[in-house]
Amino acid sequence: MREAFAAAFGAEPDGIWSAPGRVNLIGEHTDYNGGLALPFGIDRRTRVAVRLRDDDVVRVATDSAQAQGDEGRVVTATLATAGRATGWSRYVLGVVHVLRRELAVEGSGFDALVSSDVPVGVGVSSSAALESAVLVALDELWELGIARREMVRLGQLVENEVVGAPTGTLDQSAVLLAERDHAVLLDFRADTAEQVPLGFEAAGLEILVIDSLVRHDHATGGYGERRRECEEAARIAGVTTLREVAVEDVASWADRMPAHVHRRMRHIVTDTDRAARVAALVRGGRPREIGPILTDGHVSQRDDFEDSVPAIDAAVEAAVAAGALGARLTGGGFGGAAIALVDAAASARIGAEVADAVERAGHARPVVFSVRASQGARRDPDD
Ligand code: GLA
After folding, report:
1. What is the pLDDT of residues 173-210, one digit of tens each?
2. CA-to-CA distance for 197 and 350, rounded, in angstroms?
3. Active-site residue, 171 included
4. Are residues 121 and 143 in the same domain?
5. Are residues 84 and 11 located together in one domain of the fold?
6. pLDDT digits (tens, 9 = 90+) for 1-33
7. Residue 79's domain spans which residues?
8. Which numbered atom of ligand 1 lies nearest the CA of 125?
9. Ligand 1, atom 5: nearest CA belongs to which residue?
10. Coil, strand, or helix at residue 326?
């Protein structure tokens, strides 16, 4: 990366910072409803090499062919115009804009090179990985000393205000707080984050990501509509967030709101319950037992939250049929990926069987890869 940086900008970078993508084990769309979620950072990272400049120019380059197709290899802006960025560079320049506006930061310009193996549009938070890598880089280079929890809020502002995606704080929390071999139990009402050792490796387990190749966009897709439906459910139930509704009370609301709004409520309330149960099992050293809860979570998303797509339903079904302990859609939905909990020894066979079955069902052949719980955003060691 140092060489690529030198080729792009003619100098050595001051350092390289990186952040992982994330997989959400369970607890979907619970973040903006004050619920629980249990994500972990994955061993796919976005790296950003940065060198401060002595003027107010910001140049951002990427080695991603996909992004270059959109906008070209190097995007040039100034600190003051960063908020007007479009395309992939918004995730970098948006951070500059938000830091300046929220914290009145007076840093100098910089050159940055982005390189990533976090797939984009898959539901593993490529955008949060990029924002967070830039946040930790600028935090250090501009000597800001921002707490991780505050970075979560700043990353969310980039999404909400610069990108225009009305997302919650799940992704940034996962990417910024992740620890190796742990998931983070996030409680969005209490605003707490607790590390939970996963113990997958010791139990001979692995998580497969099954990318459907159906792409989502949370700025324009059904995400915002779901969010509004959840707010409607909360309003009718007279609560600030759906977290206030107990599992055993959900049924009593059925004839007091539109049927689809009630289904959204049921998903949110039961998924927080599932997240609590999964966290308890994992913590108790019983990770094999979480499989059926994951699959129940998928059924809830498919039938109640209605944010799945046929290719992902097919992948979940095929994974379970091939011997996965459990499987579900992960992330914001309307495309993206499924995850499957599998025996590591059977992982390659299950992956191949799922890809075959999904293709046979008439969908694009999914791309399958395994992930390990990895470290959150950090400065990479110099080597
Ligand atoms: C996307 C959003 C998150 C969260 C998930 C669904 O990843 O960015 O805030 O709402 O969807 O759990």
Report:
1. 999 999 999 999 999 999 999 999 999 999 999 999 99
2. 25
3. yes
4. yes
5. yes
6. 999 999 999 999 999 999 999 999 999 999 999
7. 2-194+375-379
8. 7
9. 332
10. strand
